[in-house]
Amino acid sequence: MTILGVGTDIAQIPRILSLIRRRSPEQLAYRILSEVELGHWGASRSGSDIKRDAQFLAVRWALKEAAYKALYPTYRPTWKDLAYYPLGAIEPGSKPHLSYKYQSNMALHCSVSHDGDYVFSTVIAEQ
């Protein structure tokens, strides 16, 4: 496999909170989440915890921004073309995984960390 690129991103959770407050958590979720992620979103929501919603969306925002940076200019994915599967989502013990809808032969290795108001992500794209 050949490395196409490496991407990083930092998302500030208060910025995501600001976007949510201007519209709604659902509007932002429908704009940036894939169908699979929308399913995870619905299953993970616990009432009206807006900070938890913001962190969930900030993780996906940062990962997708990092993935775009790793893939560009060879590929130009949209928000919904990329799907994030968190730790253990595919099978018990599986690592976090990012997939690109139109490239099944591609490996998108991802790492995400959050601390306080920030979410940091790194993506390495291999094909």
TrEMBL record:
InterPro entries named in the record: 4-PPantetheinyl_Trfase_dom (IPR008278), 4-PPantetheinyl_Trfase_dom_sf (IPR037143), ACPS (IPR002582), Ppantetheine-prot_Trfase_dom (IPR004568)
UniProt GO molecular function: holo-[acyl-carrier-protein] synthase activity; magnesium ion binding
Keyword Zinc in annotation: no
Keywords: Fatty acid biosynthesis, Fatty acid metabolism, Lipid biosynthesis, Lipid metabolism, Magnesium, Metal-binding, Transferase
Keyword Transferase: yes
Residue span, 4'-phosphopantetheinyl transferase domain: 5-83
One BP term from GO: fatty acid biosynthetic process
Protein name: 4'-phosphopantetheinyl transferase
The organism of origin for this protein: Lentinula detonsa
UniProt lineage: Eukaryota, Fungi, Dikarya, Basidiomycota, Agaricomycotina
